[in-house]
Amino acid sequence: MSDPSAYDVSSRPGATEPVPAVVSLHLYGVRGLGIARAIGHMGFDRRALRRIPGATFVKLLGTGSGRTFTPRDADPQHWGVLACWRDADGPERYGSSGSHVSWSGSAYEQGRILLRPLASRGTWAGREPFGDPVAHRWDGPVAAITRARIKPSLWRTFWSAVPPVSGDLREVDGLRLALGIGEAPVGLQGTFSLWSSNAALSEFAHRRSPHVEVMRRTNDVGWYAEELFARFAVLDLRGTYRGEPL
After folding, report:
1. What is the CATH number of the domain that holds 161?
2. What is the pTM assigned to this prediction?
3. How many CA atoms lie within 13 A of 215 on its CB side?
4. Angle between the N-to-C axes of helices 98-106 and 33-44, in degrees from 0 to 180, rounded to the nearest 10
5. Phi and psi torsions of 98, nearest 5°
6. Quick one: 14 exposed, middle or buried, by C-beta within 10 A (0-12, 13-18, 19+)?
7. Which structural domain range is residue 29 located in?
8. CA 192 and chain centroid, separation
9. How many CA atoms, within 13 angstroms, populate the side-chain half-sphere of residue 24?
10. 234 forms bridges with which residues in the sheet?
11. pLDDT tens profile 122-152
């Protein structure tokens, strides 16, 4: 796919954080003792990753099916590292880091996805990691990241609303990949999805009744203490996830 360096790194006037030149998501599949090593990475790699030159935002993520957003969704065999970079060479620097080398030594499969922000609203851990991109047309595949910090008093209400949306999601034409992502077993939840086009993502987000109903209830109930939605141009896909090419 396209070279990330070909894209203009620009934000709207007044944006609090610049738009990253590229966002990378590395996915690792592990088994056996690799699961224990993965848990170790989650606990000990944060500082080292944030010191990689050009990294502006880094999150180590557990993954899951995203069907209920409860601990029973968790997939201990798949983990992710999401990073925002000031320049297009950032993912290559990560690829040379001790963290990636160690993950690779434990992984039976790997995937790498490179993204360029198209739109972003909301915050993640009090930050706007994807900036406020200037809208521009993109005719290729897209990705979406949602992330929310759910109010503890509303966890049960939120979980009851998730299954109809996650079930409908898997019936939508144009969906290429969907997985839950999380920084903790409960409360800090999100999704990552890959779509064939902007039109396919917009159809699900704005026209499918289960998702529209949840958006309406979000305004009424106020599930989230913090939320973020971001849409991305997909620049490059490499490797596999659950044995299937990305």
Report:
1. 3.30.70.100
2. 0.85
3. 12
4. 160
5. -60, -35
6. exposed
7. 11-239
8. 4
9. 25
10. 115
11. 999 999 999 999 988 899 999 999 887 776 6
